[in-house]
Specification:
Blueprint lengths: L12 H47 L17 E4 L6 H7 L11 E5 L12 E5 L6
Antiparallel strand pairs: 1-2, 2-3
Helix pairs in contact: 1-2
């Protein structure tokens, strides 16, 4: 005796389910990549600011007069990262890998109005970002 199988043919359901799953998968994958690029840029800018603070603290008032432009001075330096005529900007700018240097602003200031040893220095690196 033969048993009847009551299976309905479901043509196209696999294609529809696959399209839904692939859409969600691609959205999650591209979202993770976008967040990864953002974290990379954040870490790059943070590391550039740390490097700038180290250079400013080391070469502020103690820089010899023949050191790539001499002393950094006690004034606030604010310029684009591509301006290599200022040694402070040059020191920070070379750390900005993967960042649009044309729109990046670097600000170096000494809050205590002096660049001597044991005085505070603040380096601020800002750049506009947008999602990929």
């Amino acid at each position: 005796m033969r048993l009847r199988q009551n299976k309905r043919v479901r043509r196209g359901s696999t294609l529809a389910e696959g399209a839904l799953v692939i859409g969600v998968f691609l959205m999650l994958t591209l979202g993770v990549l976008d967040v990864g690029v953002g974290v990379f840029r954040f870490n790059t800018i943070s590391q550039a600011a740390r490097h700038g603070v180290r250079q400013a603290a080391t070469h502020g008032a103690l820089a010899p007069s023949d050191w790539r432009g001499g002393k950094w001075g006690t004034v606030t330096i604010e310029d684009y990262a591509t301006n290599t005529s200022i040694p402070a900007i040059d020191a920070v700018g070379k750390m900005l890998v993967g960042v649009n240097k044309d729109k990046t602003k670097i600000k170096i200031e000494w809050p205590d109005s002096g660049d001597a040893v044991e005085q505070k220095v603040r380096v601020t690196v800002t750049t506009p970002t947008s999602p990929c």
